Amino acid sequence: MTTDYMAEALELARRGIGLASPNPMVGAVVVSGGEVAGRGFHTWAGVKHAEVLALEEAGERARGAALYATLEPCVHQGRTGPCAEAVIAAGIARVVAASEDPNPRVSGLGFQRLREAGVEVILDQAHAAEALKLNEPFVSCAPAGRWCS
Questions:
Q1: DSSP character for 148?
Q2: Which among 73, 94, 114, 115 has the fewest CB atoms less than 10 Å away?
Q3: Which of 84, 71, 75 is nearest to 130 (CA)?
Q4: CA-to-CA distance for 107 and 111, rounded, in angstroms?
Q5: 66-69 and 27-32 as β-strands: parallel, antiparallel, unpaired?
Q6: What is the mean pLDDT of each run of 10 residues along the chain (149 residues)?
Q7: Rounded distance, CA 142 to CA 123, Å?
Q8: How far is CA 15 from CA 24, 50, 134, in A?
Q9: Long-range contacts, stretch 49-53, CB < 8 angstroms, 24+ apart
Q10: pTM (2 d.p.)
């Protein structure tokens, strides 16, 4: 069922078009017991990220659940707290992400932090190109150090 939930996360991410910039457009879906328990998308820079919104909507149903996200959860403190820590605190058991974050402050470190905390991490290669295309401006600028947190 990975495909269906990631497709929904990508659709949610598209809701951030024209809103999330200069941050990436991200969608997130929390799945518990085969049902969607929470949804979120990144709206404005400096406002809660998609993962946090989905976790808040899921509430206690997030414990032991899976999180489908279009981008690796962030691991640094910017204008908002690190999403990886929110995922861990919520008790998520598995994170399925469509792509690694190109931001050098995050790239691979979010996945590493999750694994260190015992969270299973899966890269959904089938949706990687679509997720990266959605955030083409962010993907091209982030490695050069031009991004917002």
A1: -
A2: 115
A3: 71
A4: 8
A5: antiparallel
A6: 81 88 88 97 84 97 98 88 96 96 85 98 93 75 48
A7: 20
A8: 12, 11, 11
A9: 49/74, 49/80, 49/83, 50/9, 50/12, 50/13, 50/26, 51/26, 51/83, 51/86, 51/87, 52/80, 52/81, 52/83, 52/86, 53/28
A10: 0.89
Q: Which amino acid is at 83?
A: C
Residue 135, SS3? Answer: coil
Write down how long the chain is.
149
Q: Looking at the annotation, which residues are catalytic?
A: 51
Per the structure block, which two tokens stand in for 145? 């150090």
Tokens 């908002």, residue?
80
| SS percent in the chain: helix, strand, coil, step 5 | 40, 15, 40
Distance CA 52, CA 146 (A): 24
